[in-house]
Amino acid sequence: MPPPDIRPPDDPLAERRRRFEEIYAAGHDPVLGYALRRTANSHDAADVLAETFLTVWRRLDDVPPGEQTRPWLYGVARRVLANHHRGERRRLALGDRLRADLAEALQDVAPAEPHPVTEALNRVSEDDRELLTLTAWEGLDPGQIAVVLGCSRNAVRIRLHRARRRLAREMERHGGAFEMPAPRVAVVKGDNA
Fold this sequence. Notes:
Organism: Planotetraspora thailandica
CATH topology of the largest domain: Rna Polymerase Sigma Factor, Chain: A
CATH superfamily of the largest domain: RNA polymerase sigma factor, region 2, helix turn helix motif
Distance between the termini: 91 Å
Shape: elongated
Radius of gyration: 29 Å
CATH class of the largest domain: Mainly Alpha
Number of strands: 0
Keywords: DNA-directed RNA polymerase, Sigma factor, Transcription, Transcription regulation
Largest sheet: none
Domain RNA polymerase sigma factor 70 region 4 type: 117-167
Helix content: 55-70%
Number of helices: 7
Protein name: DNA-directed RNA polymerase sigma-70 factor
Family: Belongs to the sigma-70 factor family. ECF subfamily.
């Protein structure tokens, strides 16, 4: 009696992955070139390329073999580009409408004199301005700012202290009186025995 066939069963996912990789390797450069010639910048082209190959992965069983693969990829890329351009037109139309609404709302408002704090804030570094506005305008505490900036809470406290001092110097330098606000202290409510 012959020995049983000991080959491992076919792995359908491995076969699917292999087929996708072959299509990707052969189609990447042509589809990227197609997208680059039809978009405003390389970032948009990269988005179109990614969306095209995501569609390929989802519809891998529909991809025709051989010489028909590349035209099929161009067809997918063409539809992705159409969606991209429609989305771009919607974003531009929304931006135009918002600008018009804002202009209409502000037409009766007289321009205000710049506040000395705003002027001083514009003279400090962008990093200092970000820290100060995250605290003052967004109302974030140092722990929350640490999450936004991707650093430690202690680093935020140190940077914030230095940014406040630089802002105060800018205020003094240009004739504005500026008093540093007292740090907020958390009050814990409980039994007072």
